[in-house]
């Protein structure tokens, strides 16, 4: 009963604090602040709660994360970005005292706020969660939009504009240097952050290409040499190919997981349960269902990773007609070195042939990926539904059928 009363008090106290902090944001948030707004803060409140639940934090720890997230950027109310963490810790001290928090918890919250200062230096899991939630957007689809808001804020603070290319270069350098601290962020945010880095590369290359085009126009050089590939186009092919290869590697990893898990289950069932069926015949049908599920799931997983063998030869006629694709090993592994070298020279002489081959390569990579993921989906569906049915069958056999009644 005492625990219930304490929880009610904690919830009321948190609600009062949230009402107060929202009023403070409305009154004291500067208009020139574009990024470190209440929107960023409420997102961080949501994410620290999500990560706290992931790590099964206690009610008190969750509440401390709640206070830390709300207070981590209030230093912007009374000054610029420089030193805002220390100012935020001061606000935390005075405000949380009024809300009756003990000094030990206030010190913990202040330390977590100071840990968000760049470069981040979390000392424990609590501070790591706060630091990762503060830069959560680096690993989300909203990354580019958020970095433009931060650009707007920096421009207003500096009183002068910054070129988009210069800002994106700085953002790329920051994101490359950044490291997530929690296993949660490393698992769920780091992969998206890598994709965002590739997108930044593409945008920077695009801006460089546009600048070169403007320079050529100013110098009255309107003619474009088609034999020389544009850097933006090269980046597009490079990023797209890399994404396809990473997706293929992810598919193979998922397939290997399915193969390994189902192999283990089948081994256990065969070695332990099959020998007991004479004593417990009521488990025969559930055992057959489970083994069948694992076998079918394994078959689909194996089909997803099974390589396809091609003829391995591109003829001179194919190259002359600009049809042969020499960029995939399966098309040339049986060719002689001389024929392959001649074919590559012909391809490098003609930008259209080169780009056409790269386009076909990406297209067929996509076709292979679609088959892989289709087989993987079937494998996971069979495993999920079959495993549920098998478990239910075991429960029914245990509860409603005695061995001698089966």
UniProtKB/TrEMBL annotation:
Its main location: membrane. SUPFAM superfamilies: HD-domain/PDEase-like. Residues 214-226 have a biased composition (Basic residues). Keywords: Antiviral defense, Cell membrane, Membrane, Nucleotide-binding, Transmembrane, Transmembrane helix. It comes from the Bacteria. The chain crosses the membrane at residues 255-274, 280-303, 380-401. The keyword Transmembrane applies. Pfam families: HD (PF01966), PycTM (PF18967). It is found in: Cell membrane. Residues 37-137 form the HD domain. The keyword DNA-binding does not apply. Residues 211-230 are annotated as: Disordered. CDD domains: HDc. Residues 236-396 form the Pycsar effector protein domain. This is Metal-dependent HD superfamily phosphohydrolase. It comes from Algoriphagus jejuensis. The lineage of its organism: Bacteria, Pseudomonadati, Bacteroidota, Cytophagia, Cytophagales.
């Amino acid at each position: 009963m005492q625990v219930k009363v304490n929880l009610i008090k904690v919830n009321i106290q948190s609600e009062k604090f949230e009402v107060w902090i929202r009023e403070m944001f409305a009154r004291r948030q500067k208009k020139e602040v574009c990024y470190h707004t209440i929107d960023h803060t409420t997102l961080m409140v949501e994410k620290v709660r999500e990560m706290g639940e992931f790590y099964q934090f206690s009610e008190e720890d969750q509440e401390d994360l709640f206070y830390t997230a709300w207070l981590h950027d209030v230093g912007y109310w009374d000054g610029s970005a420089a030193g805002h963490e220390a100012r935020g810790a001061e606000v935390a001290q005075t405000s949380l005292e009024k809300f009756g928090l003990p000094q030990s918890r206030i010190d913990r919250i202040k330390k977590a706020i100071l840990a968000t200062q760049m470069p981040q230096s979390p000392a424990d899991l609590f501070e790591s969660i706060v630091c990762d939630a503060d830069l959560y957007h680096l690993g989300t689809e909203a990354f580019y939009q958020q970095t433009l808001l931060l650009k707007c804020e920096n421009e207003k603070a500096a009183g002068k504009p910054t070129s988009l290319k210069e800002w994106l270069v700085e953002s790329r350098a920051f994101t490359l240097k950044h490291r997530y601290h929690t296993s949660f962020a490393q698992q769920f945010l780091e992969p998206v952050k890598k994709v965002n880095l590739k997108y930044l590369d593409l945008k920077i290359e695009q801006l460089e290409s546009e600048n070169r085009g403007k320079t050529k126009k100013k110098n009255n050089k309107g003619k474009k040499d088609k034999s020389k590939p544009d850097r933006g186009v090269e980046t597009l092919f490079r990023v797209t190919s890399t994404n396809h290869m990473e997706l293929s590697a992810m598919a193979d990893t998922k397939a290997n997981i399915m193969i390994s898990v189902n192999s283990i289950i089948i081994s256990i069932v065969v070695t332990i349960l099959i020998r007991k069926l004479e004593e417990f015949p009521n488990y025969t049908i559930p055992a057959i269902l489970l083994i069948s599920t694992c076998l079918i799931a394994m078959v689909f997983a194996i089909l997803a990773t099974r390589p396809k063998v091609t003829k391995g030869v591109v003829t001179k006629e194919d190259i002359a007609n600009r049809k042969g694709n020499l960029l995939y090993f399966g098309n040339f592994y049986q060719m002689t070195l001389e024929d392959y070298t001649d074919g590559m020279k012909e391809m490098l002489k003609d930008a259209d042939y080169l780009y056409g081959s790269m386009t076909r390569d990406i297209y067929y990579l996509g076709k292979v990926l679609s088959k892989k993921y289709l087989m993987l989906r079937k494998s996971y569906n069979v495993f999920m539904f079959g495993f549920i049915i098998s478990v239910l069958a075991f429960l029914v056999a245990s509860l409603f059928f005695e061995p001698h009644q089966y």
